[in-house]
Amino acid sequence: MTIKTIATTPFDDQKPGTSGLRKRVSVFAQPNYVENFVQALFDSLEGFEGKTLVIGGDGRYFNDVAIQRAIKIASANGFGRVLVGRGGILSTPGASHVIRHHGAFGGIVLSASHNPGGPEGDFGIKYNVGNGGPAPERITDAVFARTKAITAYRIADVPDVDLGQVGIQQSGDMVVEIIDPVADYAALMETLFDFDAIRAMFASGFSMRFDAMHAVTGPYATEIIEKRLGAPTGTVINGTPLPDFGGGHPDPNLVYARDLYELMMGPDAPDFGAASDGDGDRNLIIGRGRFVTPSDSLAILAANAHLAPGYARGIAGIARSMPTSAAADRVAEKLGIEMHETPTGWKFFGNLLDAGRVTICGEESAGTGSDHVREKDGLWAVLLWLNILAVRKEGVDEIVRGHWAEYGRNYYTRHDYEEVDAEAANALVDDLRARLPGLVGQTLDGREVAYADDFAYTDPVDGSTSAKQGIRIGFSDGARIVLRLSGTGTVGATLRLYLERYEPADGDHELETQAALDDLVQLADRLVGIRRGTGRDAPSVIT
Ligand code: G16
User: Fold this and answer.
1) Quick one: a GO cellular component term (predicted)?
2) Which ligand 1 atom lies nearest to the CA of residue 365?
3) Is 113 a catalytic residue?
């Protein structure tokens, strides 16, 4: 085999964000852009000679191109074997499982998650380590440093592999095994959930709609929900992954999954509605007439997980990202288990899961998951909900209301200001940060500020620290205003404002969410000055 060493020059914008490197396709399509990043990644890792690497992505435009390049660079750098999902497809949780199941050294996941795809859309590359989880910051920092110094990459001068053919091929001296992307994952789900009970529920007329948004979960959901659980054909809609997601925005929220939301709120609503995102790690859960916020979903899943066989012995602990509502904290308190608050980003859960300190994790950004993999997992959340519904024999709305009656309700909303001027956004955050010390102890609109800080985290397992993870202003009544800059946008900056207040178990749980939080929205606007600072008079997305 011929290995070519190609001279290159660094790009200065290859800093991985919350979840890997995400940019417009046009940026990734520049000569050497993918090659530089992948070589910088391999230069930052040690001990992979002869080992196995997993490669797969969400099928978006440029997926196949990037995969062929990654395979040839892996071959030239000495990996022994790569496992690739057929057609280049692996959902993010699916890839995490394949890495763990096959004892791989790590994996490259090609995805820009919920961001739009197609030639004008976004692309992304993320590296996951041997536990199946996203690389920790010490690795992503090393990769970024390397991208700024790279002078050459190594690539095998061999033909492309046939991504459509399950089986074994060669790429130079390296073995390439194309695997069925769904099989291992579906088998794992069967070990966690009571498929018989869910099958019986569907057989007795339970109806569901799952919107795969023309993204990666289509084949997974069709196999599991329709084939293995016996839901009628047509339960899964938009089930064929398309390179541009059919022109849609594969983010399962109330804006981009509007059709599903309207169906679920209408007179012909099925019993249960769900959706997942571009790469299959996010979820949207809607019962008939009842949207479940991701934060509430985390709390309800944690409180009921013992009803599924995989969690029958109970859960060790719960972790949530800082901006996620405190609903799950109340469940942990009642169960007498550990509760952890981490920075945004699934990578921060990895150590806690590996150490067995938490079993279930979740984020307000529509992510929930458990120790079965090291990524959030959209279909897992859907299946756990189905398992709970099958055992409790109650509707989603009943379960949600019952949960609030027991634990109280954390009214919660997130307001996103997307693609705002980056300088203006940074100035707003810096300005608020500077005013934080003076806020503590003040009474604002009748609420006393209990704390005001920039969230910093010390990992309890390895002691690593992460600072400047978002500004929080907490009040003595449990209300909270959080402001942070998104780490997943690709153009300008996205400001996220998170608002929360607690209504006790015997309080009023029937308010409309935005109305319930209106006084906090007004207060946040005065404190932060988003409208003034960005020139926007309303958020782009409210969830
Ligand atoms: C990624 C991360 C999540 C994070 C989310 C939002 O999700 O994996 O942990 O919560 O981004 O991050 P941000 O608020 O910085 O935009 P995904 O689904 O995009 O991979």
Assistant:
1) cytosol
2) 10
3) yes
∠ Cα 524 529 533 (to 5°): 150
3-181 shares its CATH topology with 185-407 = yes
| CA of 340 relative to ligand 1 center, distance in Å | 18
For the chain, the structural domain boundaries read 3-181, 185-407, 409-542
Tokens of 69: 């390049």
DSSP for residue 20:
B
Q: Where does 409-542 sit in CATH, by number?
A: 3.30.310.50
What is the CA(479)–ligand 1 centre distance, in A?
A: 23
- Is 3.40.120.10 the CATH classification of the domain at 3-181? yes
The CATH code for residues 185-407 is 3.40.120.10
- Active-site hit among 75, 113, 276, 297: 113
Contact 308, 381 (CB under 8 A): no
Residues whose beta carbon lies within 6 Å of some atom of ligand 1: 18-19, 113-114, 281-282, 321, 344-346, 363, 365, 367, 486-488, 496
- pLDDT tens digit string along 413-424? 999 999 999 999
d(CA 285, CA 420): 29
Taking only the tens place, the pLDDT of each residue in 473-532 is 999 999 999 999 998 777 789 999 999 999 999 999 999 999 999 999 999 999 999 888
Global pTM?
Answer: 0.94
Ligand 1 geometric centre to CA of 446 (Å): 34
User: How far is 19 from 309, CA to CA, in rounded Å?
Assistant: 31
Pocket test for ligand 1, best of 92, 365, 380 (most atoms within 8 A of CB): 365
